[in-house]
């Protein structure tokens, strides 16, 4: 059996491929586990600048969990809870990754695949891509953390539309409701995602990491502490900041070292 999660590194950019094209890149329980392991390992790599997540082939980003293993792995509430804890941990690892993440979406992006995409910082989709959570056909529900990953982007009304009707919507609809960032022609998806990652990689990594942290924090309702307010200025003590503004003044390209 081929490796369900492939990792390819190109300098400071890593591409993770969900690799089960025969089943539209559906994730088995071991695949969910490995994806979480990989994301936690990459998050700790200080030399990285961006991570792209994609599906193998052109038919799907990921169609969700591999239903064929449900009789053995998800046939009761207790089993479903244990399985769900692995999925939750993986989605959280994507959301909390220090480095910016980009979902490169072709074809079907449904169920757990949509959770993975929504946990990324950006989503670039082909014009023929499709999105949904048709879990009502299984008699199953999403766990709270899985719901939250999608609800961070769409309204409760849209979330319920997807869940209650089991609708699979097109890219235009997904863009209108804020589920994805941009649509390009199918043949442009890979190049657009690559260029997006390269633009991110050229920026100051400490600033990118802090911006991710700050945006995530602002989603929580409690008032900001003085320590949190002060942290917004912490990058000004970095070597990267000194290099950045000096390079700008001298009309040179900055060299950032995440220091």
Can you put this structure into words, describing what you see?
By secondary structure, this protein is α/β, with parallel strands linked by helices. The protein is 44% helix and 17% strand. It contains eleven helices and ten strands. It has helices at 29-43, 70-73, 77-95, 112-119, 144-151, 156-165, 171-176, 189-202, 205-218, 226-231, 239-249, and strands spanning 5-10, 13-18, 50-55, 60-62, 101-105, 108-110, 122-126, 130-132, 168-170, 182-184. It has a six-stranded mixed beta sheet with strand order 1-2-3-5-7-10, with helices on both faces. It has a four-stranded mixed beta sheet with strand order 4-6-8-9. Helix 1 links the parallel strand 2 (13-18) and strand 3. The radius of gyration is 19 Å and the shape is globular. The mean pLDDT is 94.
Mean pLDDT: 94
The termini sit apart by 41 Å
How are the strands of the largest sheet arranged?
Answer: 1-2-3-5-7-10
What level of helicity do the residues show? 40-55%
Rg for CA atoms: 19 Å
Order of helices and strands: EEHEEHHEEHEEHHEHEHHHH
Unreliable residue runs: none
Q: Report the β-strand fraction as a percent range.
A: 15-25%
Helical segment count: 11
| Largest pleated sheet | 6 strands, mixed
Compute the number of strand runs. Answer: 10
What spatial form do the alpha-carbon principal axes imply?
A: globular
The SS-based structural class is alpha/beta
